[in-house]
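Lay summary. Proteins are chains of building blocks that fold into shapes, and those shapes determine what they do. In this project we predict the shape from the chain. Here is one chain we studied, written as its sequence of building blocks.
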Amino acid sequence: MIRKASRNDLAFISGLHRSVNRREQGLFLAEGEKTVAELLGSGIEIHSIACLNDYFDQNSAIIGHFEVLAVSESELGRISTLTTPNRVLAICKTPQHAEFDFQQVGQTVLLLDNINDPGNMGTIIRTAEWFGVDAVFASPGSVDFWNSKVVQASMGSIFRMKVYQQPLLDVISQARNSRVQKIVGGVLGGDNMSSFSRQAESVLLVVGSESHGISSEILSSLSHKLSIPRAEGSQTESLNASVASGIMLFHLSKK
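And here is the predicted shape, written in a compact code that computers can read:
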């Protein structure tokens, strides 16, 4: 069904821009036609959809059974987080994944230590899906997975990935209790990553923020400190976190 969005509807949606409200309500926003198309095929529960009338007319067969709020272009601009709002946004139930099972052998798990940039986070999740990562954990100091800019940058990958936000030391402890021994971190000045090879065992890969790297308490828990080799004469101080993640995941995917 479709009805005109009320002021309360618009205020409620705008409130979901804040992480505290997303957590309290158990909801997040997915914006733009491409992202919503990915969402519709994902199995994630949709609370409601806000869209322009012409979008509804063109897609009523697909979205007509949801609660649909009709909004004007100016209203969509007020409730959107995009610089250039698209024709639709969806309000969705945040998925609750079952506790991750570290007992299975041969898994690749990505740990993100204080990744604050939403674009980086979304790109990392997209890259993780490409390389078959089994789960992504982020520290409490990282950006919220369900920030709408993270969702947008992930290009739908976040709808299909197992993502968890919890203290990374706890994650490492759980993994070790399940006999996971390879805790690998990307650091400047570490061993050349080509010196590390994996067989069938599970591996945890820790990636830190571009500005601060991996925090000291996590650093001391690593079994291997690896670096991406830099060309001779290069004066670049560091790599973007999403780029570094992609390079290291490519190397780790070669079992």
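What the prediction tells us: The mean pLDDT is 94.
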